[in-house]
Amino acid sequence: MLLSIQKVKETYNISRSTLINWEKEGLITPIRTPKGRRRYKKEDIEKLLGMIEEKSKPKVILYARVSTKKQEEYLKNQIRRLEEYANLRGWQYEVISEIASGVNENRRGLLKLLNKIKRGEVEKVVIEHPDRLARFGFEYLKFFMESFGVELIVLNGEENEQDVNKELAEDLIAIVTSFAARIYGQRGGKRHDNNTG
């Protein structure tokens, strides 16, 4: 879309003299009409104003997770390793971290990540291990990301075996507890129905 000097002034509150200065500095090149009038590309103006993020900057999300509050130290180390990986490559990144079970489907951090992917705000996701993203269904999440053109990078870094085993045990307990609640909830309801009949 091409804009006249007047239109640029109205839309972005940029004066004629500012536009001419930008032109002299080589920041912007207007297109000339057959009558010699200047026309500016809308995206050039917005890029200069920082409204459009440079496409060359990778949109990288570092995702880290632990199951319990007791593992906060492990979470910090996980983030540090992910940041080292991204910094070595000179990437700009955002960290999404959370303390939630790997079997919990309503994780705020994971939902935030998936929504960013849906909106086209992500190019790469970096995790340390597949189970950081999800204890089950990792391949589905990977497929979802790839279908939006997002590259999923799994570092398979150092994991403390004791932490991993403890976390797996806690996740299994969470599954059993969840199933038990459903089963006993249903039985409780049935018992209640029998008493009222």
Give me some keywords for this one.
three-stranded antiparallel β-sheet; about 200 residues; 8 helices; alpha/beta; four-stranded parallel β-sheet
Can you describe what's shown?
By secondary structure, the chain is an alpha/beta fold. Helix content is 52%, strand content 15%. It contains eight helices and seven strands, in the order E-H-H-E-E-H-E-H-E-H-E-H-H-E-H. The strands form two sheets. Strands 5-4-6-7 form a four-stranded parallel beta sheet, with helices on both faces. The termini are far apart. The mean pLDDT is 82.
Mean pLDDT: 82
Outline: elongated
Terminal residue distance: 72 Å
Radius of gyration: 26 Å
User: Could you give the count of β-strands?
Assistant: 7
Approximate strand percentage:
15-25%
SS content category: alpha/beta
Q: Give the strand order, joined by hyphens, for the main sheet.
A: 5-4-6-7
Question: How is the main sheet built?
Answer: 4 strands, parallel
Residues in helix, %? 40-55%
Q: SSE order in H/E notation? A: EHHEEHEHEHEHHEH
- Note the total helix count: 8
Q: Segments where pLDDT lies below 50 for 5+ residues?
A: none
How are the SSEs ordered, and which strands pair?
Layout: E1 2-3, H1 5-12, H2 16-24, E2 31-32, E3 38-41, H3 42-48, E4 60-66, H4 72-88, E5 93-99, H5 108-118, E6 124-127, H6 130-133, H7 138-147, E7 151-154, H8 161-196
Parallel strand pairs: 4-5, 4-6, 6-7
Antiparallel strand pairs: 1-3, 2-3
